[in-house]
Amino acid sequence: MAAKHGNFKTSFGFLMAAAGSAVGLGNIWGFPSNAAQNGGALFLFIYLILAFLLAYPVLVAEITIGRYSKKSMPDTLASLTDIKYLSIVGRCIGHSSIIVAILINGFYMIVAGWMLAYLFIPFMQFFSMPDAEIFLSSQSVSRDAGFAVIFVIISSAVIYQGVDKGIERASSVLMPLLLILLLGLTVYVLCQDGAVKGVALYLYPNELHFSAALILNALGQAFFSLSLGVGVMLIYGSYLNSDANLPKLAAQVTLIDVSVAFLAGLLIIPAMTVAESHGLLIHDTEGLLLAGPDLIFQVLPALFDTMGWGGAIVSVIFFLLMVVAALTSAFSILEVVTVYFIDTLSISRHQAGLLTAIINSLVSIIIAAYFTELFDLTVFFSTSLMQPLLGLMICIYCGWLWHRDTCLQSLAEGYPELRSSLFWKVWPFYLRFICPLLIISCFFYN
Ligand code: PHE
Q: Which of 209, 413, 417, 446 has the most CB atoms in a 10 Å sphere around its CB?
């Protein structure tokens, strides 16, 4: 059955779109920031374990129920069970996932907008426009809201074109570009004086920072990074043909995602020690490596400034990398909300896309206007709390409430040897018991 919202033409197209959704600011900014503040290699290690043991099985579940139902999250969860009240609960969970998607998009577009603003700074320097440079580099409601809206408009233009002509085509160009930019930059940074110290800092756990917060951070990071819980992978799964091998595709998406996060750590943390060797400050008052906005918008631009014109080029490439990473993730969040409006309001893709763009722009503008009060709160609520919780609900609906035979049949469509595979021996049990237990215990532990 073809999805009424569209179809990916090839499995490669799905892979680029799904990996594009997964690989984003969470990998290139969030992961190195988290690793820098949480003991480097130790965080990397826990993140890798959680990504493969916890997030991957949930990813397979999301893609599988999506391809089966070919509907948005509320209708999908409602359709997995015959028990009436659980079907209603499933629908409510689905609606809340859309709210979480809108919230994520609200802060994500602001951060993506910052990247876009910083991309233009070297050009303003080149054309000697100091006022524009100050506007782009200083936080203000007009800059944050303005660039967030520009980002929403650019991403919506792609969603407008539909699944294969928009998302698939754009992701198939942008993802290889992203990998080339990232590899090129990493090699360049690793060749600079002072980089070796950063590699050591990243890969050897010199201090054991093991804590509950670290686990919750790594869990949130793994769920955020694989775009889980908000129905992105479910919707992308619904655009897959029946002959696609879901466990394999999901493994490829996870592998690309963690590899990019790993590479980004190898770019950002050595870049900081290169900055240190240029005399820049890279630790905060408590002796921790700078992270978050200080890292991206102070340390790195200051480092680029010490490199003369070469630095301007590196700066443009770096922020272009960030913009590309954010774009492919933005497509996926906007697509989820668009499909939701198409399904619930029975309107066309163009109308739904417009409505999505307006609502998401408004949410970004509100967060930008009340930045101090709302930004961190929105990030914490939607990513650390709601994404793992919604992931838990997906485990319960897919693992416990969906008929095992239907699940088997659905998965086996593109994987005929499934019945005899190790995957089928492990995954259902894993999804039913281990994943919910691990997610719940991560919460209790905190
Ligand atoms: N996975 C994206 C990133 O790492 C963020 C994202 C979260 C995208 C949830 C879609 C849904 O940047």
A: 413
